[in-house]
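User: Design a sequence. Structure:
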């Protein structure tokens, strides 16, 4: 099956038909401060100009708060390329972004015990 209709930029035999950095115009630095755990969400405002298919797909994934890492996985793009695309959408007002809430003391014993207890229950 050489060309998949559901993923026009992928070919089953050859893989990705375009280089990942082509979709970001060769840019490797996002203008918005995003990390893998940043949450982005669509604002409902349409982008002012037509965007590429990856921008449109990314925007479609953001109906609720979604992490940058999750969007990168769905797009099958490197995280830095995804950050550039999402940054474009933040800049034009189509997305909002916020940093995740981190627990101030990552070595909090009660938190670590709760995580360990949860893992034990799942195994």
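Assistant: Done.
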């Amino acid at each position: 099956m050489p060309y998949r209709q559901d993923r026009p930029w992928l070919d089953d035999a050859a893989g990705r038909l375009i280089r990942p950095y082509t979709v970001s115009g060769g840019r490797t630095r996002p203008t918005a401060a995003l990390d893998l755990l940043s949450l982005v969400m669509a604002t409902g405002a349409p982008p002012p100009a037509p965007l590429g298919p990856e921008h449109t797909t990314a925007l479609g994934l953001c109906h609720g708060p979604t992490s940058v890492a999750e969007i990168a996985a769905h797009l099958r793009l490197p995280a830095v390329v995804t950050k550039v695309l999402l940054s474009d959408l933040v800049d034009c007002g189509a997305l909002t972004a916020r940093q995740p809430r981190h627990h101030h003391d990552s070595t909090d014993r009660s938190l670590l015990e709760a995580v360990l207890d949860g893992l034990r229950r799942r195994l």
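Helices lie at 53-60, 68-75, 79-91, 109-122. The longest strand covers residues 39-42.
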